[in-house]
From TrEMBL:
GO terms for molecular function: fructose-bisphosphate aldolase activity. It catalyses: beta-D-fructose 1,6-bisphosphate = D-glyceraldehyde 3-phosphate + dihydroxyacetone phosphate. The lineage of its organism: Eukaryota, Viridiplantae, Streptophyta, Embryophyta, Tracheophyta. Its EC number is 4.1.2.13. GO terms for biological process: glycolytic process. The keyword Secreted does not apply. This is Fructose-bisphosphate aldolase. Signal peptide: none annotated. SUPFAM superfamilies: Aldolase. It comes from Quercus suber (Cork oak).
Amino acid sequence: MASASLLKSSPVLDKSEWVKGQTLRQPSVSVVRCLPNAPSPLTIRAGSYADELVKTAGLVPLVGSNNESWCQGLDGLASRTAAYYQQGARFAKWRTVVSIPNGPTELAVKEAAWGLARYAAISQDNGLVPIVEPEILLDGEHGIERNFEVAQKVWAEVFFYLAENNVLFEGILLKPSMVTPGAECKERNTPQQIADYTLKLLQRRVPPAVPGIMASVITNNKFLSGGQSEVEATLNLNAMNQSPNPWHVSFSYARALQNTCLKTWGGRPENVKAAQEALLIRAKANSLAQLGKYTGEGESEEAKKGMFVKGYVY
């Protein structure tokens, strides 16, 4: 799914205000993710993050499959990405998902890979760095070996079609899910086992030219959390960075950074400071994990709770 968030009703930054290479630490500019089917024009907000988020779902039923989905949104993407670039955006993100309990069918895998490749080619053609996000959903009772088997096939198809579409591998960021057992699998794996499988998948499937992998998936690799608990996602990231590998493995979490923060806040002004502190704790924990120095000590019970939601859509 091309899950996306755009900042609404905000002043557009003048191009002269854009500083090449500025990082997300700059307080004056918020993160913008360009989405398929997003309303136009895109606006980038200078200042607060408090604008209402507009969410656009891209997943629709894939006719002819085993109750699987495909991600719509390629129509008009070229003109939208060109407009996004003119207004200051430099990255785009497209998420598509593969369901193991529903197959995955050959049709669903190829559709996911082709859509990601076309999106990446169009984004690069208009000056944006495409974040390529093939996610293997946690839904199911399957073990880690099955996830590994499916992920190998999905990633192989993704990189094949990226090459077929003349995508510059040095100019993409890969944001995959980690290799884990299904959420309903009775056999659980240790962080070290998850790290071993995930790093083996990277070594077998990712071309050396790919400079970034965002999760939550070569110098900088980032992974999505995919419904793991905050602590699980951090422990698994930490284990990958304690294992020998040629990359810097980092994170691009949503729920695994925000869950405790949002629950602490609860929409109440008096809870803002406590929520900010909760977010800082998670940010520090994952900062340590991407250095292989996270211990898990002192984590709250809330951070240890799983966040998997069966059939989760966003």
